[in-house]
Amino acid sequence: MKNTVVTVALAAGLLAVAGCSSTGTDTGKDSKPAPNPTAAVLKAAQDYQSAANRQDWQTVCTLSSARLRGGTVADCVSTNTVTPAASTSASPSSTVKPPTYADGSTPAPIATSTPSGPDRASDGPLTPGDVLAVPASGDHPAGYGVFLSFTVTWPGQSATTDYRALRLVQEAGGWVVDQHESNIQRADQLRSALLGG
User: In whole angstroms, what separates CA 2 from the centre of its chain?
Assistant: First the structure.
């Protein structure tokens, strides 16, 4: 009987301690663990990078923090959107000649980036890597770092792999990109890339 009383008293004591927080404000009722943000962070990171690869500036700017875009979403879209210059004539002027090198040759045309066309790279699917908590650094608040990789294939060339390190922070109730780094080649470089090392 004595062992039963001790066991019941010990169990009651443990339940009382488990139901209380260290601040004394939580009664233990309806308390739920904080949801793991990994899935939401990863989705926002993939949506951002996929839009960047497609040059969908509306989505990129919407998924950027106010600090990163440096103004409104409309300003960000306007800054990043390249509009082709209007041509004044159907053919190049006969008075403008291409430059000529000392050996008499002329340079090859330079490929330019356009939203569509033969000189646009084809991007493969995104492959997510690590998601880890990163502390505040410089102007960047604390958040989560995400490592992403994807293939890039330019016409007539072999595919290469590009890597991105993204810092995501919570803003206005959602996850947005506050930092993006491309000077990374492995998932173990994620933290140092986002912390400036």
Answer: 62
